[in-house]
């Protein structure tokens, strides 16, 4: 073989991709480009919209010609005619040239003449248009060029002739057919097989790649696959990609008649799977997947495919440790290839077991749990497909009793399993716990069925002894008991088969275990559904759906699980999707198992219970009796002791890990008893006669219960008591909840128009509704229109608001329509249910004039409570905030002046006229509708609540719904207004007990909301209490320490700072509910939270901690922004697979800013665009960079500007606060210009923060945790001050302890008038010389008109209250309100409440921990001249590992434009961080690294040593900041 060294003139675009300079032009495909057309899209073929042309140090590419092209669109008609004339003239010219060349090439000319003609022809073909060359002309050129391609004596003629063939395919789409007819493909294959000249061979590959796109079968029959692959190792990477693209094109049309034409290529393809180039491996894998699909029915050919090590190489690539990151479709295709091999090849079957396939599958299945955590790089959509394929593979590895399988092959597989019990044992040990974990995580029906099918086969094939050891690795009885709550025939039948097999092999071992977990009781319910088991929360969820599962599956509905894992899809399978199960199969099997193993008196669910269950029921009854006694008589110290002793006994019982089963825990009634204890026996909707005492008792019990849980923790135990209780409750919740998941509905994608309520277009279909007046309703008139289109995802109260003025009597129509028009003007197009919730609470000064009747009674009770409360009862006078006092004073004045309440008079007069109803009540099919729900949710609630029939749900778009309307029974809204008790609870807790227990104000729900949750309500309520205890652990333990100090049992106040063990927030996440929410959000119609079942919104608003952080992020984006996050639309297996690419994306707007006027530019930008749903992109004045990088840098610079000293915004007023940024207190009476500017800056800060969240930008703002609490609408208390000012917070806590000790001593002193003396650390309060000014802010006077200006023991309590108020309330109220006001102009800040303070910081600022060693290898791509094994890459990774935090931030700022990574770290960076080789114009050690921030590209020269690279890189990242220019 000879490598010809002559240099040819080529365009830049024709150079191999790895030999071209890296620029933004690489992302622009070209028809004449020599890079291969790969079957899978790469990272550069579909970039995020943020990726414009920008770079730091290297700059961006922006040609002036591009601007000219934009302007030419607006040229005159004369210029257009001139252009057309020019092209007509050029086409005519080209045609005449082609004719002349054709004539010359047809004649006999010498080699030099042929060479000149071919050169001219190639040049003309490269620039001509498709109109210049007719098909007749192509047909005439083809035989001549094919003949010249055979020219043996002159390789240059061969080269140019083949190049002309390549260009012909580009110019004319029919050229491939003509070339095939004239035998061009055999000629090209011959040139490749002989391989005399490298450049000729490369050109042959280019030509074949073009021809194979249109004529794959002809290429196959000519042996092109082997010709292309024979010498593939001699080519560069870019040429290898072209070759593999050719093979893939051919593999699309493989012929089963000649397998030898492609089977000979399998060994070469298997060898290529070991290469490191991702695009190359993608193409090879795609080829093998196509070949495997073609021969899947031939065991011999499948065996042949396995011989070159295909199974080994494939396992390497699907493993989590693979260095080659494949796209999601390729990855799933490789797993599918293994499925086909395992199904049809005994060789593959044996090899997979010998290569420990169970360990690989375990790793893949285990990673599913990470899909609910942001650290994972696997999104749920793509991962579901992957899990499905892995379950298919595992099902194939365990033979079944199916008669359709080849008997000989089946016998060989069975013999292998029988002869290798150790392999089968390891298979089970690896997979059984993982399969159980996957099912418990909330997988959908098909995944659950697949896992149970594997477990069923595993139990069948394992011997009795092996099965006993295997099942000990997991709590199998509890797992099986949970399966009976699934309302599907297929799942329940598999669970029954597993129970039957276990009882057949191990009857005595598992009898008691099954009884303890309630398995026999579940069987009893299955075959006796009419038996009443006294409303058991467990048994309520057991049963099977109606016969809908046995009906043929309608179009657009998922197929039956019977066929979900059917590999063969034989002709015997019914095409209509009819279920294979016969009617009553489940009932018959359940009854047989019951009679065979459990039909005894001791396990009769109506009579017998276990000893443990009986003991727990006794404790539950005792706690209920005590709660009832406490309601009948005043709580005494003796009763409190009894409560404490009984709670301690209950916690001691629950502490035993394996002693109590989930079934016994739920059935005992302990959960409800504990909830009744915490709520003081308050039932939902029940009137509270003595609200003050009631809620005071609730707060005290909350503290006692929390202190008990934290004090009972055994230091030697690995698991705390509170954690043990949380885990029991999570198991109980997964067992009793039965929230429906509504499947996707098929509908045509187009624009729809919703007449009701606001007349707007929607991307989803509307519901057809006919509004009908109630028969006996005389005060309303008929609705004018017959059938109207209604937006299905807006709350019913908006529909009622549209309907009410149109059905009222004439005398009220005009005024009402005017108010309706005003409402429509301010409303959004398609609001979610959360959009209609009550607006954020107004300031205390604005509340009094708006008090209604119920609120007036509350304020009166609050005032009475304030006068009656004793100093030693949980609270102190500081508990009632100044804002609450203002409210009571205002109400008192309004009542006392006239002797009556004008608000009551106004409320009574509003109900006088019955002819003018204030509201309507809507009914659907006779059922009253809840105005908080959407119409879509109301329909789903009725249908899923009655039938569980997916067929009726799938047809909901075509039906016409008749909604009846009538007057509301009273002017008070039953469902849409908070109940009296709920408002009382909220007010008292927020205003009275906010110092200590602000959490339980939202612990309980109203009647209607609790009914939505069913038997899950008590479990979730208790979980919410525990979550509050965990979150307020410092508050509770500080209260306990203060109480002990007050009672004189200790003088050590250092415990106020003691560390408290916390439970990680992930422990409160319920995997099953998280997966259900994920499934619901994957529904294409979920563009609004109103498109989800009502339980999703209810739980998200009440207990968001039940859902994983990533799921809440998606929910937040849907609720607040109307779309899913952008990063979920990536298609990379290593990044984020799947996603919903059809989601709406906001338009983009470029803004010009000035570096020397960052805040002014930001203010101007927000003034113009904060209310617009546009993605803002920044371009700096006098710089050329634009796109993602400059925009991220702009937000970073704005953040730094907000942290400058001298702004008057933050405490300590320093650049970087050690404890985070918290607002500086300003006196409420301050009206200085400086304070006005501070307010404006906080408003701008709210704009910036909201816009950054909306656009997905990161901020570098270290807010204090307490400020995040204020953003989330939570009130701060004395115990929060220590988080942002430890010295002040600790001092105030000690002062409060002194106050309570003084109160305790006075209450126990016989002479109450006698003064007591309390010292703080052996010092009198008077000796501290404190005055009533805010420390650090002498101009801030806490109070005026005091008798004494100095603080002493008598006014210390007032001093503490004023300090807390100035620091956390009134002193910062205007700043916080300004921030929220600015935020609300972008989107409602209330949507952030689904996050905790720590999570909100991650969402806003990204990750604190930037990267570790493993992440660098897993989430960095190497391309364009670099692979993972390149020496410069090894040096770079070592340098990056050695970076400290400051250097890491500088590196990220240099490469991405932001100093922090997004939530999820490097895995979530989009596009992925990519390292490419920079071709240096000088020496390799002379150039600096450069970047493309828009694509997260680092262009790294191949430096000679690690030391040189470190020096150049550090110089670039420190000195290369602050500008964007061309490179």
Describe the structure.
This protein is mainly alpha-helical. The protein contains 64 helices and 16 strands. The strands form five sheets. It has a five-stranded mixed sheet with strand order 4-3-7-5-6, covered by helices on one side. A four-stranded mixed sheet has the order 13-14-16-15. It has a three-stranded mixed sheet with strand order 8-9-10, with helices on one face. Helix 3 packs parallel to helix 5. The radius of gyration is 37 Å and the shape is globular. 46% of the residues are buried. The N terminus is likely disordered.
Features:
5-stranded mixed sheet; single chain; mainly alpha; 4-stranded mixed sheet; disordered N terminus; 4% strand
């Amino acid at each position: 073989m000879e490598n010809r060294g002559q240099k040819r003139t080529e365009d830049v675009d024709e150079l191999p991709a790895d030999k071209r300079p890296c620029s933004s032009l690489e992302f622009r495909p070209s028809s004449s480009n020599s890079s291969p057309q790969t079957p899978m899209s790469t990272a550069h073929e579909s970039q995020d919209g943020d990726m414009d042309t920008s770079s730091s140090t290297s700059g961006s590419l922006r040609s002036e010609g591009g601007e000219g092209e934009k302007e030419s669109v607006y040229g005159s008609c004369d210029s257009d005619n001139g252009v057309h004339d020019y092209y007509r003239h050029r086409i005519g010219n080209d045609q005449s040239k082609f004719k002349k060349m054709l004539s010359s090439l047809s004649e006999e000319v010498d080699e030099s003449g042929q060479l000149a003609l071919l050169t001219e022809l190639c040049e003309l073909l490269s620039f001509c248009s498709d109109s210049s060359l007719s098909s007749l002309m192509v047909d005439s050129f083809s035989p001549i060029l094919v003949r010249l391609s055979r020219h043996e004596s002159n390789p240059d003629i061969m080269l140019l002739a083949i190049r002309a063939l390549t260009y012909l395919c580009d110019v004319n789409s029919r050229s491939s057919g003509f070339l095939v007819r004239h035998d061009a493909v055999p000629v090209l294959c011959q040139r490749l097989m002989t391989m005399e000249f490298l450049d000729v061979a490369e050109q042959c590959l280019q030509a074949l790649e073009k021809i194979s796109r249109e004529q794959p079968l002809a290429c196959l029959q000519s042996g092109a696959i082997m010709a292309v692959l024979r010498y593939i190792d001699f080519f560069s990477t870019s040429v290898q990609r072209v070759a593999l693209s050719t093979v893939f094109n051919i593999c699309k049309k493989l012929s089963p008649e000649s397998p030898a034409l492609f089977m000979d290529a399998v060994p070469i393809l298997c060898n290529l799977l070991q290469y490191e180039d991702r695009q190359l491996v993608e193409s090879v894998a795609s080829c093998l997947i196509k070949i495997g699909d073609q021969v899947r029915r031939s065991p011999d050919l499948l065996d042949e495919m396995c011989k070159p090590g295909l199974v080994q190489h494939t396992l390497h690539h699907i493993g989590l440790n693979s260095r080659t990151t494949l796209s999601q479709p390729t990855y799933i295709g490789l797993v599918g290839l293994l499925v086909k091999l395992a199904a049809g090849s005994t060789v593959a079957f044996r090899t997979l077991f010998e290569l420990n396939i169970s360990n690989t599958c375990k790793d893949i299945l285990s990673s599913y749990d990470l899909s609910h955590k942001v650290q994972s790089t696997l999104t749920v959509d793509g991962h579901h497909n992957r899990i499905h394929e892995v379950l298919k593979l595992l099902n194939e590895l365990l033979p079944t009793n199916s008669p359709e399988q080849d008997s000989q092959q089946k016998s060989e597989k069975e013999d292998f399993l029988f002869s290798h019990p150790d392999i089968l044992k390891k298979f089970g040990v690896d997979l059984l716990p993982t399969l159980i974990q996957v099912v418990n995580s909330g997988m959908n029906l098909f995944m659950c069925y697949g896992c149970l099918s594997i477990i069923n086969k595993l139990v069948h094939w394992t011997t009795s002894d092996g099965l006993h050891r295997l099942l000990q690795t997991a709590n199998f009885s509890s797992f099986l008991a949970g399966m009976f709550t699934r309302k599907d025939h297929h799942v329940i039948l598999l669970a029954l088969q597993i129970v039957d097999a276990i009882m057949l092999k191990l009857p005595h071992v598992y009898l008691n275990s099954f009884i303890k977990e309630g398995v026999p009781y579940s069987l009893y319910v299955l075959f006796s559904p009419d038996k009443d088991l006294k409303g058991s929360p467990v048994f309520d969820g057991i049963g099977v759906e109606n016969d809908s599962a046995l009906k043929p599956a309608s179009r657009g509905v998922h197929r039956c699980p019977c066929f979900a894992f059917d590999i063969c899809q034989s002709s015997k399978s019914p095409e209509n999707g009819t279920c294979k199960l016969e009617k009553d199969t489940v009932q018959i099997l359940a009854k047989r198992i019951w009679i065979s193993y459990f039909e005894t008196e001791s396990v009769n669910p109506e009579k017998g219970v276990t000893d443990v269950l009986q003991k727990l029921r006794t404790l539950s009854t005792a706690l209920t009796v005590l709660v009832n006694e406490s309601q009948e008589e005043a709580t005494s110290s003796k009763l409190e002791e009894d409560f404490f002793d009984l709670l301690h006994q209950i916690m001691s019982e629950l502490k035993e890990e394996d002693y109590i089963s989930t079934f016994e825990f739920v059935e005992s009634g302990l959960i409800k008893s504990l909830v009744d204890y915490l709520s003081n026996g308050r039932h939902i909707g029940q009137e509270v006669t003595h609200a003050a005492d009631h809620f005071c008792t609730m707060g005290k019990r909350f503290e006692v219960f929390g202190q008990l849980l934290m004090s009972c923790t055994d230091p030697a135990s690995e698991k705390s008591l509170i954690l043990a209780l949380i885990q029991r409750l999570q198991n109980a919740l997964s067992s009793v909840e039965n929230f429906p998941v509504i499947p996707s509905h098929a509908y045509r994608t187009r624009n729809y128009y919703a007449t009701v309520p606001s007349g707007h277009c929607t991307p989803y279909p509307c519901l057809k509704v006919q509004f009908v007046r109630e028969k006996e309703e005389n005060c309303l008139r008929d609705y004018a229109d017959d059938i109207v289109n209604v937006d299905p995802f807006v709350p019913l109260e908006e529909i009622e608001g549209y309907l009410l003025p149109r059905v009222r009597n004439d005398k009220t129509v005009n005024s009402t329509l005017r108010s309706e028009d005003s409402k429509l003007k301010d409303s959004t197009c398609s609001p979610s249910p959360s959009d209609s919730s009550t607006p954020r609470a107004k300031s205390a000064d604005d509340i009094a004039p708006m008090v209604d009747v119920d609120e007036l009674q509350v304020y009166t009770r609050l005032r009475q409570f304030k006068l009656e409360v004793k100093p030693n009862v949980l609270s102190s006078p500081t508990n009632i905030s100044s804002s609450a006092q203002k409210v009571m004073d205002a109400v008192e004045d309004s009542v006392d002046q006239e002797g009556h309440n004008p608000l009551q008079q106004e409320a009574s007069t509003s109900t006088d006229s019955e002819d003018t109803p204030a509201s309507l009540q809507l009914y659907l099919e006779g059922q009253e509708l809840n105005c908080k729900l959407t119409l879509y949710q109301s329909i789903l609630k009725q249908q899923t609540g009655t039938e569980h029939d997916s067929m009726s749900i799938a047809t909901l778009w075509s039906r016409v719904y008749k909604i009846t309307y009538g007057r509301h029974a009273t002017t008070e809204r039953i469902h849409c207004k908070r109940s009296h008790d709920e408002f009382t609870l909220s007010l008292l807790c927020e205003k009275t007990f906010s110092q200590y227990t602000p959490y339980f104000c939202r612990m309980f729900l109203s009647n209607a909301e609790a009914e939505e949750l069913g038997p899950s309500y008590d479990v979730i309520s208790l979980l919410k209490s525990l979550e509050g205890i965990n979150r307020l652990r410092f508050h509770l333990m500080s209260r306990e320490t203060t109480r002990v100090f007050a009672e004189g049992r200790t003088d050590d106040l250092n415990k106020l700072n003691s560390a408290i063990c916390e439970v990680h927030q992930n422990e409160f996440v319920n995997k099953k509910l998280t997966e259900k929410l994920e499934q619901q959000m994957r529904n294409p119609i979920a563009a609004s939270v109103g498109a989800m079942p009502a339980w999703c919104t209810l739980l998200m608003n009440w207990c968001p901690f039940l859902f994983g952080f990533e799921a809440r992020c998606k929910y937040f984006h849907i609720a607040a922004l109307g779309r899913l996050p952008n990063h979920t639309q990536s298609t990379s297996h290593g990044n984020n697979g799947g996603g919903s690419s059809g989601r709406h994306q906001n338009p983009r707007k470029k803004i010009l800013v000035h570096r020397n006027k960052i805040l002014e530019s930001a203010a101007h930008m927000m003034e113009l665009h904060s209310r617009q749903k546009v993605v803002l992109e920044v371009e700096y004045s006098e710089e050329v960079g634009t796109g993602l990088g400059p925009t991220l840098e702009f937000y970073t610079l704005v953040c730094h500007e907000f942290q400058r000293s001298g702004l008057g915004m933050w405490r300590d007023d320093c650049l970087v606060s050690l404890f985070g940024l918290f607002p500086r207190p300003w006196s409420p009476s301050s009206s200085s210009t400086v304070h006005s500017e501070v307010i404006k800056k906080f408003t701008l800060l709210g704009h910036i923060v909201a816009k950054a969240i909306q656009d997905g930008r990161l901020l570098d703002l270290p807010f204090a945790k307490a400020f995040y609490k204020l953003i989330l609408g939570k009130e701060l208390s004395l115990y929060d001050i220590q988080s942002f000012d430890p010295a002040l917070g600790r001092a105030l806590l000690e002062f409060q302890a002194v106050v309570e000790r003084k109160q305790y001593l006075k209450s126990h002193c016989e002479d109450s008038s006698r003064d007591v003396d309390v010292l703080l650390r052996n010092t009198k309060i008077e000796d501290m010389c404190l005055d009533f000014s805010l420390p650090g802010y002498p101009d801030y006077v806490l109070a005026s008109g005091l008798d004494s200006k100095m603080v002493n023991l008598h006014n210390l309590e007032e001093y503490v209250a004023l300090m807390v108020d100035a620091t956390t309330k009134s002193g910062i109220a205007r700043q916080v309100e300004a921030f929220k006001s600015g935020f609300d102009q972008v989107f409602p800040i209330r949507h952030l409440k689904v996050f905790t303070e720590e999570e909100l910081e991650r969402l806003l600022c990204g990750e604190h921990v930037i990267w570790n060693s493993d992440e660098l290898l897993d989430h960095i791509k190497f391309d364009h001249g670099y692979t993972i094994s390149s020496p410069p890459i090894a040096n770079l990774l070592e340098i990056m590992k050695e970076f400290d935090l400051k250097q890491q931030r500088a590196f990220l700022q240099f490469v991405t434009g932001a100093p922090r990574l997004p939530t999820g770290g490097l895995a979530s960076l989009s596009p992925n961080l990519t390292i490419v080789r920079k071709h240096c114009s000088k020496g390799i050690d002379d150039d600096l690294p450069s970047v493309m921030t828009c694509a997260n590209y680092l262009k790294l020269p191949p430096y000679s040593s690690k030391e040189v690279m470190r020096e150049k890189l550090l110089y670039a990242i420190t000195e290369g900041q602050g500008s964007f220019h061309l490179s």
